[in-house]
Amino acid sequence: MFAAWPGVETASAGLAPDAEEHCSAELVEWADIIFVMERAHRARLQRRFKLWLKRARVICLDIPDDYAFMQPELVALLERKVGPHLRSI
């Protein structure tokens, strides 16, 4: 969703077993900022990848993870909540 933003490289990965792309230590280590939708996601990320999270800033968006993929309401929420963080880098 944010891949076209100037100066931003993005990757998307999930923590759930059925995620299309799974989060990995290499991906966490690569990231400067990691956005998660829920606090439970942040806790799971920190449990699984604590050793690799030394550099990345983890930001919880406090968005319930009950939207369909690219649902318009979700897209609007993500733009509103992620956009300011991306503009500041």
- How would you write the strand order of the largest sheet? 1-2
Number of domain units: 1
Estimated radius of gyration: 13 Å
Shape: globular
Give the distance, in angstroms, between the N- and C-terminal Cα atoms: 17 Å
Major beta sheet, specifics?
2 strands, parallel
Q: Please give the number of β-strands.
A: 2
* Number of contiguous helices: 3
Share in helix: 25-40%
Sheet-strand content, in percent, reads 5-15%
Name the structural class. mainly alpha
Element-level helix/strand string: HEHEH
Q: pLDDT below 50 for ≥5 consecutive residues: which ranges?
A: none
Task: Give the quaternary arrangement of the chains.
Answer: single chain
The chain-level mean pLDDT equals 93
Describe this structure in words.
By secondary structure, this protein is mostly helical. It has one domain (25-87). It is 37% helix and 9% strand. Helix 2 (39-49) links the parallel strand 1 and strand 2 (57-60). It starts with 24 loop residues before the first helix and ends with a helix.
How is this structure best summarized?
This protein has 89 residues and is mainly alpha-helical. The chain has helices at residues 25-30, 39-49, 72-87, and strands at 33-36, 57-60. Helix 2 (39-49) links the parallel strand 1 (33-36) and strand 2.
What are the salient characteristics of this protein?
89 residues, mainly alpha, 3 helices
